[in-house]
Amino acid sequence: MSDPLHERDQAAAALDMVAKAAGPYLDSLGDRPVHDHRADILLDLLDGSLPEHGEGTLDSVELLLRVGTEAATHSSGPRFFHFIVGGSTPAAQAGDWVTSLLDQAGGLWLTSPFAARAETVALRWLKDLFGLPQSYGGVLTPSATFANLTGLACARQWWGECHGRDVAADGLAGLPPMPVLAGGYLHPSSRKALLTLGCGRDSARIFARDDAGRVDLAAMERELERVDGPAVIVGNAGEVNTGDFDPIGDLADLAERYGAWLHVDGAFGLFAAASPRLSHLVEGVERAHSVTADGHKWLNVPYESGFAFVREQGLMGRTFGPWGAAYLPAEDDPHLNYNCLGPESSRRARALPIWATLRAYGRQGNREMVERHHALALRLGEIVESAPDLELLAPVRLCVVCFRYRPPGVPEEEVNALNAWIGEELLADGRVYAGTTTYRGMTALRPAILNWRTTEADIDLLVSVVREIAARRTR
Ligand SMILES: *Cc1c(COP(=O)(O)O)cnc(C)c1O
């Protein structure tokens, strides 16, 4: 054993082991805890020194499966409510396996017309689902962070061009700082994008009219009047603490009035557009210059999956390509080379799970999933509101419910510590995963419901586990 060439006839057998483990594992997701901390001991089995002679294909895959199916965080099950984490639909999960099976170099048309065509179709279907004009350019990215990087890089290129500069070629030296304006809902990933782009992590000027972060449009407008030259506005469609939205239409109006670029981070909130009942939340997004969202959140595609859409497709090419390298496609290549439209070079055929889930469940299936999760969030909100020991901290907008445990008689100065403790105990318990955030100075739970497997019973269990844990402390 050692050289994979000697194990080539094990390739299908190794995949077969994975497939055989899949059935029992997926069947167990409904009942098992999100995380069984006792299984963490198995992680030691991954460790050790680099084997001099390999342990072989089947032995290694067997060990990985043994450890993984026990010690992984079972976040694709129905009760991982922490952060904003989706699951994996059956079609998306299988589509992801196909991606690995075919192992495409998915950046260039030349290396995989199949991957490029699937990406083009997936992007077209996504624009359709989100009500974005088909004229928008698009690219698949590993995440919304990369999608924000893509959109804001295009914004920076546009802004440089307004100043007569090709920032892609020449950088930012000699230019004034790029004015970036946002409300208090700005997500850290946009700050990360700004730092990566050399604009500075803290360069965004924040206009908030309250401690929740709701955007102060009047103050933002005064700043737009004041700044010299064009600016970039970042809007958030879906904020992580409560699921609230910036008024995208109003931001689009401001952008139009002042000739600014509007970038909308819709990592999960853009999926409101998939439902006629909820699409009012993102009204105006079709007027943005760049729009981003995640596949690994509400589309329920496995990690990693994100997408960026840019109104002027040509700008994407000017921002990220061409390389001017003799061995790579030239600028006038008639085919779409997606690695010229985004920050990646080599990349997997990221479109396949997206294509598979959109084809499998269509517009209706995705709409129903979004509406079901919205209904579950409303249900949780109602349970919280009618409970004497729970307090809803913000209206339920979409799929996040921001609340805290607050039984009568506990003094306010002890409520934060109590909720922080409940959050830690919830994670240690593992049956339902929900951690805490700080919202308007209050320590709060903020479960996010966006896994296709989640049902009412899972929501009810969350409430009862919170109470059970709290009773241990307050007793
Ligand atoms: C999750 C999230 C992001 C970042 O997405 P990643 O996929 O984790 O990179 C950006 N913005 C918002 C609003 C998010 O919820």
Automatic annotation (TrEMBL):
Gene3D superfamilies: Aspartate Aminotransferase, domain 1, Type I PLP-dependent aspartate aminotransferase-like (Major domain). The keyword Lyase applies. The keyword Lyase applies. Its cofactor is pyridoxal 5'-phosphate. InterPro entries: Aromatic_deC, PyrdxlP-dep_de-COase, PyrdxlP-dep_Trfase, PyrdxlP-dep_Trfase_major, PyrdxlP-dep_Trfase_small. Keywords: Decarboxylase, Lyase, Pyridoxal phosphate. SUPFAM superfamilies: PLP-dependent transferases (SSF53383). Belongs to the group II decarboxylase family. PANTHER family: GROUP II PYRIDOXAL-5-PHOSPHATE DECARBOXYLASE, MIP05841P. This is Pyridoxal-dependent decarboxylase. It comes from Microtetraspora glauca.
